[in-house]
Specification:
The protein is α+β, with helices and mostly antiparallel strands. The protein has one domain: 2-Layer Sandwich (Alpha-Beta Plaits), CATH 3.30.70.20. Helix content is 24%, strand content 12%. The protein is built from 7 helices and 6 strands. The strands form 3 sheets. It has a two-stranded antiparallel sheet with strand order 1-6. A two-stranded antiparallel ribbon has the order 2-3. A two-stranded antiparallel ribbon has the order 4-5. The radius of gyration is 23 Å and the shape is globular.
Length: 214
């Protein structure tokens, strides 16, 4: 059974937000909730990088660990979903998630969160696949239709990859090798202070005795 994962290639992301738009349009997500968003670091300065962020469907999901009503569950494909009928809107998952994936609607009285919403990897929810109830609560179930998440399919530069984790890893690994950056992609030069990115420090040459030479 394939294990579904997301990877965003920061070298390709151009901050076009097509992934965000595709997600909201596909699932008719209400105003104030963004299942996916684009985060930019060093905006406007050299070294600027952007990355598309959503629920990463963690193998050891912290949201599942802290939920007091156990509304989260994991599918056979490794997708982390939740049951809105069980959710009490406590917000613990929002505090625990390092990616800020759990979202709460901004409408309603002050201090009232309502039912939590998050990226479903376009896998729907606990209701019958393709049903009106499933779409109303969780959006379209593209995985049941044999399709990949809309955000990944709509990415114009193919920076956002989604699907079988092994296939996604092979694609990204091939890109890294073609870029020729070697181990520097993983921060080797920064961590070990090598003189050239991704290369071990050059060994010093033994001194040559020049006495008596003209």
């Amino acid at each position: 059974m394939a294990r579904m994962k997301f990877v965003c290639d920061a070298e390709r992301c151009i901050e076009c937000n097509s992934c965000v738009t595709a997600c909201k349009n596909e699932h008719e997500i209400p105003w104030g909730v963004n299942r996916r968003r684009v985060v930019t670091l060093n905006d406007g300065v050299p070294g600027e990088k952007s990355i598309s962020v959503a629920c990463m469907h963690c193998s050891d999901a912290p949201c599942m660990a802290v939920c007091p009503v156990n509304c989260f569950y994991r599918t056979e494909e490794g997708v982390v979903l939740h049951n809105k009928d069980t959710c009490i809107g406590c917000g613990y998952c929002s505090y625990a998630c390092p990616f800020g994936a759990p979202q709460f609607p901004s409408e309603g009285a002050f201090g009232v969160r309502g039912k939590m919403d998050k990226c479903t990897f376009c896998a729907g929810g606990p209701e019958e696949h393709g049903s009106a109830a499933e779409f109303e609560k969780y959006g379209r179930n593209r995985l049941a239709e044999g399709k990949l998440p809309a955000c990944a399919e709509m990415c114009s530069t193919k920076a956002l990859l989604g699907g079988d984790g092994n296939v996604v890893a092979d694609i990204f690994r091939t890109r890294v090798l073609h870029r020729g950056k070697g181990a520097e992609v993983w921060g080797w030069g920064t961590a070990y202070g090598s003189q050239q990115a991704g290369q071990p420090p050059a060994q010093s040459q033994p001194a040559t005795d020049t006495k008596g030479k003209s």
